[in-house]
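Whiteboard transcription, Tuesday session. T.W. wrote the C-alpha cells on the left side:
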C-alpha cells in the first residue's frame, strides 16, 4: 500500500514530548472532502477547540466507502455520493501508541437528512458543520497548520488531524 505521506510526532511537533513506543495499535479512520451543490467544502468545528477539520472518524467496518458516507451523514446531515478516493496517510502517534491509517474520499452531497444523527458526545461538544469556498477552506487549514508548527495548538490529536486534513485538501484542488 502506498501512502501520500507518513506522519510521526517529529513531523508535527518541534520538540516531541512522547517516546516512540515498542509497538502501535492499528486504527483505521476515514476523512471526507464533501462538496455541496454550491461547490463549497464542509468543515467541522466545535467551541471546545475551535479548529476546523474535515468530516470523518473511526471506521467500524472494512467497507471504507460505507464508513465515509456514515461519517458524513452523522457530521454534516447530508447523504453523499463518493466520487473517488483521494489517498491514504499513515500516522504513528506516540502518545497513545496508535498507528492510524486514514483513507480520504472526495464526495458530493445528494440530499439533506431530516434527522440530526450526531452522536450524543458530538451534540454535547457543540459539533457543527460550516461550508466554505475551496480557497477559503484551504486558507483556514493553512493558518491552522501554521499554528501547529508554531506550537500554538495544545491538543495532541487535533494537531495531527490539522496537518493531515490540510494535506488531503491540498491534494484535491477543484
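and on the right, the sequence the group agreed on:
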Amino acid at each position: 500500500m502506498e501512502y501520500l505521506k507518513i506522519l510521526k510526532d517529529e513531523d508535527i511537533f518541534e520538540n516531541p514530548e512522547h517516546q516512540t513506543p515498542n509497538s502501535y495499535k492499528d486504527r483505521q479512520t476515514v476523512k471526507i472532502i464533501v462538496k455541496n451543490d454550491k461547490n463549497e467544502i464542509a468543515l467541522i468545528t466545535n467551541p471546545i477547540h475551535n479548529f476546523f477539520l474535515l468530516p470523518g472518524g473511526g471506521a467500524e467496518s472494512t467497507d471504507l466507502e460505507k464508513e465515509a458516507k456514515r461519517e458524513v451523514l452523522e457530521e454534516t446531515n447530508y447523504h453523499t455520493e463518493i466520487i473517488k478516493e483521494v489517498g491514504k496517510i499513515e500516522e504513528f502517534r506516540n502518545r497513545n501508541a496508535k498507528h492510524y491509517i486514514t483513507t480520504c474520499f472526495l464526495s458530493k452531497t445528494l440530499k439533506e437528512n431530516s434527522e440530526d444523527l450526531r452522536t450524543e458526545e458530538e451534540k454535547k461538544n457543540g459539533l457543527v458543520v460550516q461550508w466554505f469556498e475551496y480557497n477559503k477552506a484551504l486558507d483556514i487549514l493553512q493558518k491552522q497548520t501554521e499554528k501547529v508548527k508554531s506550537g500554538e495548538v495544545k491538543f495532541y490529536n487535533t494537531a495531527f488531524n490539522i496537518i493531515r486534513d490540510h494535506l488531503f485538501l491540498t491534494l484535491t484542488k477543484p
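Someone added at the bottom: Residues 33 and 171 are 11 Å apart (CA to CA).
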